[in-house]
Amino acid sequence: MTKSNYKLTKEDFKQINRRSLFTFQLGWNYERMQGSGYLYTILPQLRKIYGDDTPELKEMMKTHTQFFNTSNFFNTIITGIDLAIEEKEGFASKETVSGMKAGLMGPFAAIGDSIFAALIPTIFGALAANMAIDGNPAGIFIWIFAQIIVMIFRWKQLEFAYKEGISLVTTMQSRLTALTDAATLLGVFMVGALVATMVNVKLSWAPSIGDVTMNMQNNLDMVLPKLLPAAIVGGVYWLLGKKNMTSTRAIFIVLILCVALSALGVVSK
């Protein structure tokens, strides 16, 4: 078999989307990461394209279990392009599909994670959290609305990518780097803004020299406002760069230090 006569239907797209949303990460492992999840997502369609228990199906199943790792928010764009190629070229598309997946998973991982795993949760999470702090219940609806929009985007992109096929790669290629850089820059900007607004730690230690009490927090603010929160965030980043350090350990270290320093009267909220 070199080419397929099968054409994907709306039901196929729904099945792929359901598997992508709910099972794509279940087979994640350190050797091939999302490889088995990718295969499971499109396995029913591969069977329809190549037939059950055929040499072509077995070979393509091996191909799709190779190393694959990209953003969960953009993975079905690659899936749509892949299936469009395989539907048209059949088993002859094996090398093309492998190269396409390897070439796109990196750029889409950077774009998808920057926008959907960092930027959007940061912006809408900060809005929702600030409203919650002020006792406004509307914050939860802002967060839910943002997640619904993301889910709709993930559902719609598969069929769009399938219809555009390989032309989507050439159309977007020149924009991937610029979009990645812009998303990264905006994400860093938002992290900086959150450090200044959400990390509320003040230096309460105020040594006395004779009759004069020194306001150390005021002195720090004269050097650079929010210097202490910036130093804390910088310390956490430094910790995370150490060997065997995990985010969970870093969180516990910060909690223990905050409780201890607060009890000693060194810092306050």
The termini sit apart by: 69 Å
The residue-averaged pLDDT reads: 84
- Rounded to an integer in angstroms, the radius of gyration calculated over CA atoms is 25 Å
The general outline is elongated
Percent helix, as a range, is over 70%
* Total helical elements: 10
H/E element string?
HHHHHHHEEEHHHE
Total DSSP E strands: 4
Strand order of the largest sheet: 1-4
Q: How many distinct folded domains?
A: 2
User: Which strand-content bin applies to the residues?
Assistant: under 5%
Biggest sheet architecture: 2 strands, antiparallel
Structural class: mainly alpha
Which blocks of ≥5 consecutive residues have pLDDT under 50?
none
Protein name: PTS system IID component
Pfam family, one: EIID-AGA
Keywords: Membrane, Transmembrane, Transmembrane helix
InterPro entries: GatZ_KbaZ_carbometab, PTS_IID_man
Q: Notable features of this structure?
A:
2 domains, two-stranded antiparallel sheet, 269 residues, single chain, two-stranded antiparallel ribbon, elongated, 3% strand, mainly alpha
What does this entry look like structurally?
The chain has about 270 residues and is an all-alpha fold. The protein has 2 domains: about 180 residues, no CATH class; about 70 residues, no CATH class. It has 10 helices and 4 strands. The strands form 2 sheets. The protein has a two-stranded antiparallel ribbon with strand order 1-4. It has a two-stranded antiparallel sheet with strand order 2-3. Strand 2 and strand 3 form a beta hairpin. Helix 5 runs parallel beside helix 7. The longest helix has about 40 residues. It is elongated, with a radius of gyration of 25 Å.
